[in-house]
Amino acid sequence: RLVLRRVTEEDADDLFVLRSDERMMQYIDRPRAKSIEDAKKLIDVFEDFLQKGEGINWGISLKENSRLLGTICLFKFQPENYRAEIGYLLHADFHRQGIMNEAMKPVIDYGFNTLKLHSIEANVNPSNLASIKILEKNNFIREAYFRENYFYNGEFLDSAIYSLLNK
Questions:
Q1: Residue extents of the structural domains in the chain
Q2: pLDDT band at 109 (very low <50, low <70, confident <90, very high)
Q3: What is the pTM of this model?
Q4: Which positions ≥6 away from 33 have C-beta within 8 Å?
Q5: How far apart are CA 76 and CA 91, in angstroms?
Q6: How many angstroms separate the Cα of 157 from the Cα of each of 131, 145, 146, 148, 152?
Q7: What is the CATH number of domain 2-165?
Q8: In the predicted model, what is the mean pLDDT of residues 65-92?
Q9: Mode of pairing for the β-strands spanning 119-124 and 83-90
């Protein structure tokens, strides 16, 4: 039911909605998009990461509609450790429909079978129970819990690290 595809400039409006809406960005510790231009710059960053081999971002769409519902990526490659991080974001209107769980499976497969990764990690806000549930459904195991290990937007925040091994 899903298509994973390159994010293009035609997706700027949808990406702006994703990256500016507090419902979607509540647990994403990155600056909110303030304009369509910000979304276009982010698409350029996605493309730059791809060209430099630093990350791969996929847009998530339904087969019958090319609208960008979300994004999923592998990034922070550690070639020496055969490890990368997974990240994802889905429009709130599409939460609790199994979409991210479905999108995650081919991305994990790509990481292990094409990129030959040994492990994929996720750094998640411990309050983001929906994200943790998706990770656990995909057999990720919590490796660590860091208390107040990073500073964002004027406060110290906790993080939990989950990982999946290629076994």
A1: 2-165
A2: very high
A3: 0.93
A4: 15, 16, 19, 20, 39, 42
A5: 23
A6: 17, 11, 9, 4, 7
A7: 3.40.630.30
A8: 96
A9: parallel
